[in-house]
Amino acid sequence: MAVLNEEQEMLRDMAREWVTNESAVAKFRAVRASGEPRAYDPAAYATIARMGWAGVIIPEEFGGTDFGWLSAGMILEEMGKTVTASPLLTTTLAAAAIVLGGNPEQKAKWLPQLAGGAMIGTLAIDEGAHHNPHRLETSVSDSSLTGTKAFVHEAHDATLFVVAAADGMYVVDTSTPDAAASVQVATRHLADMRSHAQVTFCGARAEKLAHGGDDLLDQVLDRARILTACEMLGMAQQVFDTTLDYLKQRVQFNQALSSFQALQHRMADLFGDLAMMRSAVEGGLQALDSGMMMPHAAAIAKAEANRVLHTISREGVQLHGGIGMTDEYDIGFYLKRARVLEASWGSTGFLKDRFATLSGY
Q: Considering the domain boundaries, does residue 228 fall inside one?
């Protein structure tokens, strides 16, 4: 496991305590039952912003805490354990894009609002059914952006879109009524019951992020892969722990299920997979903080997260037997969310191909 300093340990413990006491899975059930397209609790996100979590990777001069990527990853891991519905991940990624590619004026304009929770940000990248960031038709003419983005996460309440176009990355601010009128959000219902939408930009006013270089999109996507893998790690850990507890408590043929050797072997395999996943994800976070081999580490972290969470979520449902298939039991939420996250920012096949290309094969 990653070695944490005192501040990071305090942050992790605070995040763990908050999600356990204030954002249990029952909170997600309540959000789902509300039927709101935003699919999260705004009051809970306001609390998250007050605790400083939205500004963890934002420099102090722009209202953040600059605690680093490992700290951001730990928070998202804890939130993944209770499938907390929140735009924190997408807002962090939008902020990262501005930190990497924005000019001083753009940073001063938007980063403090993102850090303080006044604005919610998201990425609008893909235009088709599958992740393919280098086939983009979105275009910009005279600072007006036109194009359609598919499956944009947390789009319903977002007021700041970081959009990938054919010639670079742009920021679209929809915080005013006139600006919002040029952006159309159409809900897309996915298995995880979170906020997803097709977003159409109809001549929206856009500002280019011109200071990040030609590889800005790849830099942002690598961060998206690593942070998404952090949420997936928390989910995988929770599914494993929940399943292990269930096997210890469930009695069949007058014996606890955990006493059967075949089930012990399956759990032992999952334990090994989980350790491999944690190593890959924490390696990705350390690569971000150190700036070394980050693209390679991002591909490994997300590919391993895809593989392990897919296996653990499937096995978790199966080992719970019939109750695992019911909505009244929480384990199914993790499987549904897992399938959506596996497809986000690159499937396993896409990431293997990217790693091979980065390695010169």
A: yes
